[in-house]
Write a structure and sequence with these properties.
Elements (H helix, E strand, L loop, with lengths): L1 H13 L3 H23 L10 H6 L4 H28 L3 H18 L7 H21 L4 H23 L8 H24 L6 H23 L3 H25 L9 H13 L19 H21 L24 H25 L4 H17 L3 H26 L6 H7 L1 H12 L4 H15 L9 H24 L4 H19 L6 H21 L11 H14 L8 H13 L4 H8 L6 H21 L3
Length: about 625
């Protein structure tokens, strides 16, 4: 009865429905139970046990399980690293500098991984800081804090799993896979529109929309698969499907004026099959003899469509057959997601922030310097490892300030009045309930995480009460001192998404230049270039540029690479080195009329060479749209 009344009160205040209200109450209960366990077992710093609740709880069960696993793994590894630094090195300055390197490595490593794995790396760096900074700045409590941190993490993860897992829905993987197949069906429609040289919609608009949707599928595949062995096995098929769709679209860009091509009807049947809800329905067989395309284009298109069909079948096949080994080398994959420029940037910022604030805290001798340094480290790492920190930073600031305010009120007016263990346990529940409802409300969800974390960190629930108001205010101000400069720096000095997008584009140019110097397979080229294209689009999306349209010429870069790999396979290599010199110059200056004329002059020596040169000239028309304005 009391629970229902409280639920109704908070749900009306936050304007959320009954299901979200129940979920909010469940989150608050999980945080409260974890705290109570830590208090009853007399674990030092028991408030740490509630912290995992607010970040481990997720929208899908698999994501919850995997995030909890990496929370524990990151905490254990970070603790071992932290203990190693404090045990083997006894100079506070060396310890802080080593911690800076660890935090930098973990912050950068988070951008070299995709999905929940990056969360484990992030937690490793944060946990190492939580152990090393107290050891340097407050050595009398460092060992106690480190051990209790690990214990509390285990309690929090176990409690949130037991309390919320049963009520958390499974990941909507089947719907995601169906969306991926529908998207590939749309790439086939795009191809047929190019073959017919006609389209209801502008092909360039179709291309832009398809590329953005492919990027979205790629970015979400790992998260949808989290916590499921079968899901991760099927990520291979999603990856192959995206790769094949890119190849199909790129090949379509090489097709010029093939009106009435005999493939159109069969490709239309293929797109219908991809949209079919009948998973056992046999895919249509394509008669490639009906194509009036040249042999090279036909070979590329056949390979890409065969890849697409096989990946689509594997995506919805029985779980026992959807394993990584079954793919072997027959699939053309995209290169793994690695964002080195962003990783370097995040490493430098987080590492320097941790090192500088740690040294300042050491030199200042301030009692709460450790708390401020820890706050700078945590806020820097978190904002440095998320995709769009400029959007999150204002919510982080608002949540942290709210948490510090409520923590101060709790410590001044409530904590000194708590005389029993049960009173301590009960005292935090209203604050947890407030955090739970804030977490489930769409408008306050982003800020609620930091409210809950800072309230726990600054509120010192379960610790000895203090009646020294200036001391309490100093503790809260340490958090404020940490969060304000970090969040404002991300708000007013946003991440340079356009430069990051340009770095991905530059990588394409670099790879093309290397292709003129040494041979590689078209599969290897496609894997690297396809990943660069998706990374380029991802950063443009974060920068808000894609609302103005997708840059033209991206698919043509794939076609240039295909042509260059074909040149290396020619048996008659007369004048090939001279041709490659011309191509290198065109990579740097695609609008050079002299080099374009010289490239055309190589025709007439060999029919196959003529086809490759023609394909190169067609691709250059698009490539120059992408690079000529540099």
């Amino acid at each position: 009865m009391v629970v229902q009344a409280m639920t109704n009160l908070f749900s009306n205040f936050f304007d959320i429905d009954s299901n979200k209200a129940i979920h909010a109450f469940r989150l608050a209960a999980a945080a409260w139970i974890a705290f109570a366990i830590a208090v009853l077992f007399e674990i030092p710093n028991p408030y740490w046990a509630s912290m995992p609740i607010w970040v481990v709880a997720q929208s899908s069960r698999g994501l919850l399980f995997e995030r909890g696993f990496y929370r524990i793994l990151g905490t254990v590894v970070g603790a071992l690293i932290g203990f190693g630094i404090t045990h083997f090195f006894h100079s506070p300055y060396i310890e802080i500098i080593l911690l800076g390197f660890i935090v930098a490595a973990c912050s950068g490593g988070a951008h070299m991984l995709r999905g929940v794995q990056s969360y484990g790396v992030t937690l490793t760096g944060i946990t190492a800081a939580i152990i090393v900074l107290p050891s340097v700045l407050v050595p009398e409590v460092s060992g106690e804090l480190a051990i209790s941190r690990v214990q509390c993490t285990l309690i929090g993860v176990i409690v949130v799993t037991l309390v919320t897992a049963f009520f958390t829905p499974e990941s909507p993987r089947k719907e995601f896979y169906r969306r991926a197949r529908d998207l590939t069906a749309d790439t086939i429609v795009y191809l047929t529109s190019l073959l017919k040289n006609e389209s209801v919609t502008d092909p360039e608009i179709q291309e832009a929309q398809l590329l953005q949707r492919l990027g979205d599928i790629d970015a979400n595949a790992a998260m949808v698969s989290a916590g499921s062995v079968e899901g991760y096995q099927r990520v291979q098929a999603v990856n192959a499907l995206i790769s094949a769709a890119l190849a199909v679209m790129a090949t379509g860009k090489s097709i010029q004026n093939y009106s009435g091509n005999g493939l159109v009807e069969e490709l239309t049947k293929l797109s219908d099959w991809l949209r079919s809800e009948d998973d056992d329905k046999k895919h249509p067989t394509i008669n490639w003899d009906s194509s009036n395309l040249n042999a090279h284009i036909t070979r590329r298109l056949k390979f890409s469509i065969d890849q697409l069909i096989d990946a689509a079948i594997m995506l919805l096949s029985s779980p026992t057959s959807a394993d990584a080994k079954s793919f072997g080398k027959k699939f053309q994959y995209l290169a793994p997601h690695r964002d080195l420029p962003l990783a370097i940037r995040a490493s430098v910022v987080a590492g320097m922030a941790t090192t500088l604030t740690g040294i300042i805290g050491l030199l200042s001798g301030w009692k709460y310097g450790e708390l401020a340094a820890m706050g700078v480290c945590i806020f820097s790492v978190v904002l440095g490892t998320i995709a769009q920190p400029r959007l999150i930073a204002p919510f982080m600031l608002m949540g942290a300030l709210s948490g510090a305010l409520f923590a101060t009120l709790y410590r001044i007016f409530l904590q000194p009045e708590l005389s029993t263990t049960m009173a301590v346990i009960v005292s935090v529940f209203p604050f947890f309930l407030l955090g739970g409802f804030a977490r489930t409300n769409k408008k306050t969800a982003a800020a609620a995480i930091d409210y809950n974390m800072v309230f726990l960190l600054a509120g010192q629930a379960g610790m000895t009460a203090s009646t020294n108001v200036p001391d309490i205010l100093s503790g809260a101000s340490a958090i404020v001192i940490a969060v304000i400069p970090v969040t404002l720096s991300h708000i007013f000095l946003p991440r340079p998404y356009i430069k990051l997008a340009e770095s991905a584009k530059t990588s394409i140019k670099k790879d093309l230049r290397e292709l003129t110097l040494k041979s590689t397979t078209s599969v290897e080229w496609h894997g690297r270039a396809g990943r660069h294209i998706l990374r380029h689009l991802l950063h443009l999306s974060y920068g808000g540029v894609l609302s103005q349209g997708t840059p033209r010429g991206l698919l043509e870069t794939l076609n240039l690479g295909y042509a260059f790999t074909e040149l290396h396979t020619l048996t008659n290599k007369n004048n090939l080195s001279e041709l490659m010199v011309v191509l290198r110059r065109l990579i740097e200056d695609p609008v050079s009329a002299m080099d374009i004329a010289q490239l055309a002059s190589f025709r007439g020596q060999d029919p196959r060479l003529d086809g490759i040169i023609q394909e190169t000239l067609v691709a250059l028309d698009g490539y120059k749209l992408l690079f000529s304005r540099e």
